[in-house]
Amino acid sequence: MARTGHGRYQLGERIWRLGHWVPDRRQLRDVSRPFLVDLYEAIKAPVILAGLEGDQVFAIDRICGRAAQHVWPYHVGFPALSHAAGITFLTWGDQTLPFKAAIKPTPALRRDLAHIKQRGYATSSAEGLAWVSAPLVDEERRIRAAVCIALPVGQGSAAAVSRVLVPMSRAMSDELARLRTAG
């Protein structure tokens, strides 16, 4: 909240942004949920739809068994640059992403991001989990979310998971674009 010069209150920029995206996030969840369930059934590992707020990635939705709910609680954010979801936003996002503008791209970073974009997914590992993430883009090819899969390190390979994840994220993107241009 911010106080105006006339003694009244108005929504601050951050609150306005959060409220502004609520219908968008709900649409993302509605479009992605059936695909997330299909991914979970195919891979038998936690599947998370991740969003970006500032320099943190957070769960918008997740599909997992009760034993894996601790993998990414809804109220927990992760530093974007240390997580596959954040690397996905960095790779497919434009310069308007707050944390991307602060990064000085080196030739090595440019090569790494080009390689990630070419193969269609990003990876990271932390706390015994290997993360694989692919973008969910809208009709203008802007990244709206990241679709992530968490595997215990040593169980399955990123390349094998990506053969299911990447086509599924593209199908989700196509469905999101179709719905947004239709209505």
Notes on the structure:
- This protein starts with a strand and ends with a helix.
- It has a single domain (22-182), classed as GAF domain (Beta-Lactamase, 2-Layer Sandwich).
- The protein has 5 helices and 8 strands; from the N terminus they run ββαβββαααβββα.
- It has helices at 13-43, 84-92, 98-101, 107-119, 158-182, and strands spanning 2-3, 9-10, 47-53, 56-63, 77-79, 122-126, 129-137, 143-152.
- By secondary structure, the chain is α+β, with helices and mostly antiparallel strands.
- It is globular, with a radius of gyration of 17 Å.
- α1 crosses α5 (158-182).
- The strands form 2 sheets. The protein has a 6-stranded antiparallel sheet, sandwiched between helices.
The CATH fourth-level homologous superfamily = GAF domain
The main pleated sheet reads as: 6 strands, antiparallel
**Helix-strand makeup class:** alpha+beta
How many separate helices? 5
Kindly provide the radius of gyration, computed on alpha-carbon positions and rounded to a whole number of angstroms.
Answer: 17 Å
- Share of residues in strands: 25-35%
Number of extended strands: 8
The string of secondary-structure elements, in order, is EEHEEEHHHEEEH
Q: The CATH topology, please?
A: Beta-Lactamase
Straight-line N-to-C gap: 32 Å
Q: What is the level-2 CATH architecture name?
A: 2-Layer Sandwich
Identify the strand order in the major beta sheet. 5-4-3-8-7-6
Shape field? globular
Mean model confidence by pLDDT = 83
CATH class, named: Alpha Beta
Which segments are poorly predicted (pLDDT under 50) over 5 or more consecutive residues?
16-21
Q: Roughly how much helix do the residues carry, as a percent range?
A: 40-55%
Total of domains: 1
